[in-house]
Amino acid sequence: MASRDCIIALDEGTSNAKAVVVNAQGQAIAKASRALQLQTPQAGWVEQRGEDLLAASLAVLREAMAAVGDQRIAAIAISNQRETVIGWLRASGQPIGPALSWQCSRTAAFCQQLRRDRQEQPIRQITGLPLAPLFSASKMRWLLDNTPDGQQLAANGELCLGTIDAWLLWQLTGGQSFCCDQSNAARTQLLNLASGDWDDEMLALFGIPRTALPQVCPSSHRFGITQGIDGIADGIPICAMIGDSHAALYGHALGQTGRVKATYGTGSSVMAPVEDVVQGMTALATTIAWHDGKRLQYALEGNIPHTGDALAWMLSITGDVEAQLLNQLPDSVADTDGVYFVPALTGTGAPWWDDRARGVICGLSRSSQRAHLIRAALESVAYQIADVIAVLRSQPGFNLRQLMADGGPSRNDWLMQFQADLLGCPVVRSNTAELSALGAALLAMRQLWGWDRQRLQAMLPQHDEFTPDMQRHRQLQHSYLGWQQAVLRTLWQPETALSSGEQAR
User: Fold this and answer.
1) pLDDT at residue 242 above 50?
2) Looking at residue 324, what is its pLDDT?
3) Counting Cβ atoms within 10 Å, is residue 290 exposed (0-12), middle (13-18) or buried (19+)?
4) 202 closest CA partner among 127, 110, 104, 280
5) Which of 125, 183, 368, 398 gets the highest tally of CB atoms within 10 A of its CB?
6) Digit-coded pLDDT (tens) for 262-275
7) Which residues are in the Carbohydrate kinase FGGY C-terminal domain (predicted)?
8) If DSSP codes are grouped into helix, strand and coil, which group holds residue 129?
9) Which CATH superfamily is domain 254-430+462-492 in?
10) Model confidence at 201, in pLDDT bands (50, 70, 90)?
11) Is there a shared CATH topology between the 6-245 domain and the 254-430+462-492 domain?
């Protein structure tokens, strides 16, 4: 019989569920993937079916396990889309409604009321997060408010609320384990950063009974064992759970200082490891990167809801372009001809945090062509990353050594070079497409086999480097000023402008 020398990492994202088998040398030796769908029942609402997330996750686990033989699987690791929330009945495991996506802004009015009630500062002080519908707590409240007897069921312990890691763990263990990890818990606005556990004040503020929430555990931890899943052997331990963006940071460099991670996906997360909680930060979130079983790692993060999604949207209205042409099309024009696309399609994220903002295409002229629009969409990805980096660079003692890139859009060489030139610092792109899965697998190895940092360091993947052209960097600063002016247009509200005009008269 083959030895159990592999970790299977389930990477449940927004657009795809993937399973990757990682061997003891850190190599991905089998993969499986399934596409996932988003539903948008009305403006600003984004959701998925929890049953679809589970079905896709189980399918890719079975397929990847079959490729190597389940007798080689030592443990399961999970990385997952963050902030997305689902509720289910404890007795049956059936969802009470859709999984509310991290992109969903249906709770914007509720968040605005909290802001009017002057709750933004206490929320930020305790949880490290700005007040925004991106985060999980207001979504949990919406589920309770829109479920018959939701509050009573939750208070009685008959209803479970959780991020996607908790949902998958519950199902994989046959309902025997109801836990989440600290990285996911830190994204809910219900976790106290100082204690690392649910905060009573925040639970009361959002109206979430503690009895409905999972137990908070380290990211590298034995969470339970598989039980009762067709096609998956019983008894396989789940030894790591972590938010996908955090897992990517771990998979890049295990959290080395000065190395900032940018995940280019549907949205983007720009994350920088820091030694302790940063007080007084308003533009970015302070969060828990992970707990590796021995040490809690904090991070500063900027969340951007529409980066790859912005490019996909632009392509959908201008006509599909083959992926390989996206490296060539931007260079078919000298610049965007003054066009800027600010993709605030469900509001802006960091550092602006305006959930009422909506997207803008500005600077159009009779000479504007399709190539200018698509190039503007690509540039918008880099500009949004630069907005977050600008805030990081303003922090005392912060030194950006390099930007570590991962995610689907990072495969675009033109975009990576533009990002390096815009920032004036090296951009290094991971040459593995499974970075979140790898990061989760490394944490599982740490828990299961006790491997130390030095052992894990040797397993990190190689990177492709894009060196900045400093002359072009200086030239792009004028374009960046134009971008910032375009962003201000998305923050403009007609009723505010009308009111100002009436006052002026």
Assistant:
1) yes
2) 64
3) buried
4) 127
5) 183
6) 989 888 989 999 88
7) 261-447
8) coil
9) ATPase, nucleotide binding domain (3.30.420.40)
10) very high
11) yes
- Span 49-71, mean pLDDT? 96
Given the structure tokens 């029942």, which residue do they identify? 41
pLDDT (average), residues 4-22: 95
Who's near 463: CB < 8 A, 6+ residues apart? 252, 404, 428, 429, 430, 431
Query: Percent of the chain, pLDDT > 90?
Result: 74
Question: What is the architecture, at CATH level 2, of domain 6-245?
Answer: 2-Layer Sandwich (3.30)
Strands (E), 363-503: 402-406, 427-430, 463-466
Q: Are 502 and 494 in contact (CB under 8 A)?
A: no
With 0-12 / 13-18 / 19 or more C-beta atoms within 10 angstroms meaning exposed / middle / buried, residue 331 is exposed
- At 331-352, the pLDDT tens digits run 889 999 999 999 999 889 899 9
pLDDT at 495: 56
Residue 432: HSE in the Cβ half-sphere, 13 Å Cα cutoff: 20
3-class SS at 479? helix
Position of tokens 């555990």?
217
- 238 compared with 316, residue with greater pLDDT: 238
Sheet order of strands, 99-100 included: 47-48, 99-100, 85-89, 159-163
Q: Are 279 and 48 in contact (CB under 8 A)?
A: no
Q: For 281-318, how does the pLDDT look when each residue is reduced to its tens digit (9 = 90+)?
A: 788 989 999 999 998 999 999 989 899 889 989 988 88
Closest by alpha carbon to 377, among 348, 422, 415? Answer: 415
First to last CA, the chain: 85
Cβ of 90: how many Cβ atoms within 10 Å? 18
**Closest of 120, 113, 168, 119 to residue 145, by C-alpha:** 113
Distance CA 449, CA 10 (A): 19
Average pLDDT of 205-211? 97
pLDDT band at residue 504, thresholds of 50, 70 and 90? very low
Q: What is the torsional sign of CA 190, 238, 13, 462?
A: positive
- Enumerate residues 6+ apart whose C-beta is below 8 A from 51: 95
Residue 18 identity: K
| Pairwise CA distance, residues 113 & 119, whole Å | 9
For tokens 């890691």, the residue is 165
Rounded Cα gap, residues 403 and 302, in angstroms: 14
3-state DSSP of 384-408: HHHHHHHHHHCCCCCCCCEEEEECH
Give residue 75's region: left, alpha or beta (phi > 0; psi -120 to 50). Answer: beta
Q: What is the mean pLDDT of the chain?
A: 91
419: region left, alpha or beta (phi > 0 left; psi from -120 to 50 alpha): alpha
Q: For the chain, give every domain's residue range.
A: 6-245, 254-430+462-492
